[in-house]
Structures are given as C-alpha cells and as structure tokens.
Amino acid sequence: MSNEAKSGCLIIACGALAKEFMAVRAANGWSDSQLAVTCLPAIWHNRPEKIPEGVRAKIRWGRKHFQEIFVLYGDCGTGGMLDEVLKEEGVERIEGPHCYDFFAGHAVFEGMMEEELGTFFLTDYITRHFDRLIWQGMGLDRHPDLRDAYFSHYRRVVYLAQVDDPALTKKAEAAAERLGLAFERRFTGYGELATFMKQAAGEAKQD
Question: Which of 42, 52, 62, 152 is the most exposed place for a label (fewest CB within 10 A)?
C-alpha cells in the first residue's frame, strides 16, 4: 500500500483504556479515520510478558494502513521490554509507568506516593470490574483470609476518577471497605491521556 493510500493515526492501546479513548475522541469530534484505535486485551496486565510482542505485531500491521502510530500503554510491568520494542520500531508511547501516573499527572502521583506509600489505586475501569479483577482475580472470593496477606502493607485506597459518577464513587468506596482500607477520591479527568491524544491527532493533521 502506498503512502498516499494511508491515512490518519492509529493508537495502539491497552483494552482497559478503550472507554476513555472513545470518550476523549468523541469530546474532540475526531473521526475514526482521523484517530483510530486497536486494543490489546486488558487481562494481559496479569501476563505483562505478552505485551511487548503484542504491541510489535500491532505496529507492523498498522504500518500498512496508517501514516502515524502511537502507543497508549505505560510500562505496565514489562520491566522496560515494551520500551525496547518501541525503540526498535521507532514508535512513541505516552510517558509514565502506568495509567495511575498519566491520569493523575506525574508530579501529583509522586506526591501521593510520598504522602502515603501504602496506597492502592483504583481507576474507573478497575472500579467497574473490581469483583472480576481484584476480588475474584486474586482469589479473595474463595479465600477471604488472603486479604490480610495481600493488603497488610496498604493503608488507603485512592480512587482516581475519570468521570464524575456518584454510582462509581459509591462502588469504589465499597471496594475500599471490603479491603479494610481508608478511602479517598481524587477527580483527575482524563489527565495526560487527553493531552497525548491531542498531540497524536495533531501529528495526523500535519500529514
């Protein structure tokens, strides 16, 4: 396929960020042809060794169809392997080790960790799927006694809220109570995710 036949920008994203991607795209009026997305399974956070080569495969497919490619992933537990792949492929990703960092903003996130190292973070996605990802995923539904083993070094839950939804806030607060931790909510909006997408859309326009 020739360069003239290619169009727009492709974002390769973690599946846990798909809803947020779509919300930011809709709010800015970007079309799918201008800013497209393809996602890798969110469950791969439990198998981070799969992420780097999964992203590479998406990049190589995307080069056949898009002018620009960006990656909407933190390091996400890959131990730098994702960044090695992106360096080899010449593709940029959003800055930060994980979504907590780029939702809150790096300086704010670092401040929260300095304030209380024993902080367990929730996002909208994790809150929606708390039972599947945390309660069932960590086996707490079958072995509730494991809660103390897993969370004894935590002191609080901080819910980083992307949308102002009282029902989600209530669910996040209930999750903190189930974990036996203090609860705090901080509204972040889409943070640096929105900034990153605007930059990607701008690159596509320039082409």
Answer: 152
> Residue 4 pLDDT > 90, yes or no?
no
pLDDT at 205: 60
Domain ranges for the chain, please list them: 3-97+191-206, 106-187
Edge-to-edge strand list for the sheet holding 35-40: 35-40, 9-14, 68-72, 92-93
Tokens of 179: 């974990």
The tens digit of pLDDT for each residue in 48-71 reads: 999 999 999 999 999 999 999 999
Nearest Cα neighbor of 17 from 121, 102, 82, 106 is 102
Mean pLDDT of the chain, nearest integer = 93
Cβ 127 vs Cβ 153: under 8 Å? no
Strands 68-72, 9-14: pairing is parallel
Architecture, CATH, for domain 3-97+191-206: 3-Layer(aba) Sandwich (3.40)
Task: Give 3's DSSP letter.
Answer: G
